Automatic annotation (TrEMBL):
Pfam families: Transgly. Its EC number is 2.4.99.28. It catalyses: [GlcNAc-(1->4)-Mur2Ac(oyl-L-Ala-gamma-D-Glu-L-Lys-D-Ala-D-Ala)](n)-di-trans,octa-cis-undecaprenyl diphosphate + beta-D-GlcNAc-(1->4)-Mur2Ac(oyl-L-Ala-gamma-D-Glu-L-Lys-D-Ala-D-Ala)-di-trans,octa-cis-undecaprenyl diphosphate = [GlcNAc-(1->4)-Mur2Ac(oyl-L-Ala-gamma-D-Glu-L-Lys-D-Ala-D-Ala)](n+1)-di-trans,octa-cis-undecaprenyl diphosphate + di-trans,octa-cis-undecaprenyl diphosphate + H(+). Keywords: Cell inner membrane, Cell membrane, Cell shape, Cell wall biogenesis/degradation, Glycosyltransferase, Membrane, Peptidoglycan synthesis, Transferase, Transmembrane, Transmembrane helix. It is an enzyme of class 2 (transferase). This is Biosynthetic peptidoglycan transglycosylase. PANTHER family: BIOSYNTHETIC PEPTIDOGLYCAN TRANSGLYCOSYLASE, MONOFUNCTIONAL BIOSYNTHETIC PEPTIDOGLYCAN TRANSGLYCOSYLASE. The gene is mtgA. It is a single-pass membrane protein. It comes from Duganella qianjiadongensis. The chain crosses the membrane at residues 12-38.
Amino acid sequence: MSTARRGVWRWLKWLILAPLLLFTLIQLYFFVQIWWWVDHNPGTTSFMRAQQAALREKNPSANIQQLWVPYARISNNLKRAIIASEDANFSDHDGVDWEALQKAYDKNAKKHKVVSGGSTITQQLAKNLFLSGSRSYLRKGQELIITYMLETLMEKERIFEIYLNVVEFGTGTFGAEAAARHYYGVSAANLGPAQAARLAVMLPNPRFFDKHRDSNYLAKRTEVILRRMNSAELP
């Protein structure tokens, strides 16, 4: 093989190996972070940092509202409401609800764009911790990898505890404790069934419902979740 050909082959090899090496290093970073969070609480998440940056564009001194509380100090009403509303099979699946994903894929195919994700609680946590709110199949693939890392390294209760403390409930409002204080002036431990159901219903579009708290949809969907809460299985 000539020197020129060897040089071309070397460049082609690096064009293939460099992206694979970068991909592997990124996954290793995610894995180590998740391993650390098995018994250490996350400080901020990707979603929190993005929201704070957006708020500070208008007000340089703006801060997000979030206060970590242990799993036991979050009302079971909220836990049951969120499972009933967001992921009824949370305690049983391995992190991904493939039937829900198939329905989301079919819906996206009809719309010719990504409009639905079919995400479980674990998938939502994966996205909130590390990714952005953009919708693409590439981001969805990364979300699935992180999801299985979470399910492999953590117990379901720990996954749910972190989710409850970092999920967005409104503009600049993250986690159950901040949400309970923001909307009802109580602690997360003291949320009643109706309050919890209403917060759970807000989750798919929290910033919108923060501004439209008298929405008819919000009221009707809250009644539905109230009826389903008692059958929700906690991890």
